[in-house]
Amino acid sequence: MNNIEKRINKNLNNIKLPKFDFNNLEKKGFVYMEKKRKWSIMATISTLCVVCLLVIGGLYYNNNYKVTSKVGIDVNPSVELKINQKEKVLEVIANNEDGKKIISDMDLKGSDINVAVNALIGSMVKNGYITELANSILISVENNDNTKAETLRQEILNQINMENISIISQTVNEEQELTDLANQYNISLGKVKIIKQIIANNNLLTFDQLASLSINELNLILKDENTSGTASQKAYIGEDKAKEIALNHANVTSVTNYKIELDFDDVMVYEIEFKANNKEYDYEINATTGDIIEYEIDDKNYTNNSNTTSKITNDEAKKIALNHANVTNITNYKIELDGNKYEIEFNANSKEYDYEIDATTGKIIKYSIDNNYKEPNPIITKDEAKKIALNHANVSNIFDYEIELDDNKYEIEFKSGNKEYDYEINATTGKIIEYEIDTD
Amino acid sequence: MEVNHYLERIALNDIEAFNELYNIINNNVYSFALSILKNSEDAKDVMQEVFITIYHNAFKYQNQNKPMAWILTITKNIAYNKIRSNKKTINVDEIDFITKPNHDDKILIEYLLNNLNDDERNIIVLHAMNGFKFHEIAKILDLKLTTTLSKYHRAIKKLKELTKEEKNE
Fold first, then answer.
1. Which of B87, B116, B149 is the last residue of a domain?
2. In chain A, which end has fewer C-beta atoms inside a 10 angstrom radius, N or C?
3. A78-120 pLDDT, tens per residue?
4. Nearest 5°: phi and psi at A101?
5. Is the pTM of this model over 0.80?
6. Binning pLDDT at 50, 70 and 90, where does residue A128 land?
7. Strand ordering across the sheet containing A399-406
8. Measured between CA atoms, how close is B60 to chain A, in angstroms?
9. Which of residues 90-129 of B touch A (CB under 8 A)?
10. CA-based R_g, chain B, Å
């Protein structure tokens, strides 16, 4: 850390911050356990007030008709049960068409929550929504009192008597943010919470991608240790088959440091890595079709001796890469000398190729091939994109202008006066995705 | 700072552990929120929400050994949802310091908050406050590693130049 950062650190740590506001937490259903002695007087008073209100309120409400908890069941059918204090069902709501099919003419009103949950799950099995290919269920319990929600969650979980299924269970609170997302994507609060959890673990994934996935897929991606049972992978080719495909492709038989994981990258994929012959292999294999989506081979024998002055030329490096890839017609070609190696990128046959080539020996150090490459389909031309950016910036005299098409986005950089402009423009719609103006 | 250890205890509803963790890392969370929002009060609100989220989700965070990256990603997500105004500048006097910073330091913070662009400021704050590696910062901010590095160097250069100017005046 340099001196400036040390000063920044010192000053930002010198900012006075309030004590944590536990009253704030309580509103959101925070539960104190066993530590009652430690409550501040204010917290005690405010809790007493809440208790008083609850007691008075309780006198007015008939225990039998007041909804105290909600239980959501998601498979693809999505059903919500509203229950009273005695855990009897007051109302059954279908959140989607499949949910309606599941409920059909069952009358669950007045029945015990555990009976109702088992009846609904039974109906999902009977109607082919829970199968050996997709056996995951999401149970979400909502109660303003988190302790009660947690107790009810465990009780329901214990009472489900079904084998070979995998249950994700959770408690949820009706927070504004979750409710907004649930409405926006037309999915249940419980599913929103699971997706948010997946994104918290892996922030490369987006809500858009995940919202349309099934509970079984989400369960497989989530890999939560608290889930009961194992999510079925039977809809996929399986880890053994995936391993066979990768090893065959790499043409090796004995490998070390082998790792395999089912994951999500636009589709469900097996991510495989292993070492053999002092090379590192990475494969991404479509878990449904067994197609190799992307692979990378990294030669660990390479040692960087940048002292040598005799280097192969750009053109020679290009030839080596193209020969290896066995292609001639390429687009988006880029080459760069980084230390003692050439980094080469190009597209051909709807694939994306990346090579690293030793600049002294011409040896391929590392290469990766992405079969999933989609040729960008820009409707907006470079000139049009430039115009959009310049209009927006409201400048005409510019210098150091650069434009690049990447991922169906134009990345534009230019300077004008003492300002530096950066734009990202959608190549299909011409919409400005992001811009930045910087004073030099 | 054994943040992992605290999260384990918080997962068991240990309110003391929660309070201790809050006291240890609240400036880290607040600073990042302030860097994103440029508003002291909003940053305090975000900080509250972040800790509520930590409390409710600590049990799901099992030994992934990057607890601060996890916490600051939560901070980013909550802060991004809160961005209301396109406020261009923040007055450093809005910020409540424990001991009054000296003139140079005040200017430095002023420059940091008002003269760097969003990415530059976030990178510097994450680096200075948490000692993260650049690839970790890149992951939190969803930037390429090369972009993160070049922006970091540009930002440091700017801060150096600005503080130099200050001395010459």
1. B87
2. C
3. 999 998 888 888 888 888 888 888 888 788 888 888 888 888 8
4. -60, -40
5. no
6. confident
7. A399-406, A409-416, A419-426, A432-439
8. 8
9. 95-99, 101, 105, 108-109, 112, 117-119, 124-125, 127-129
10. 17
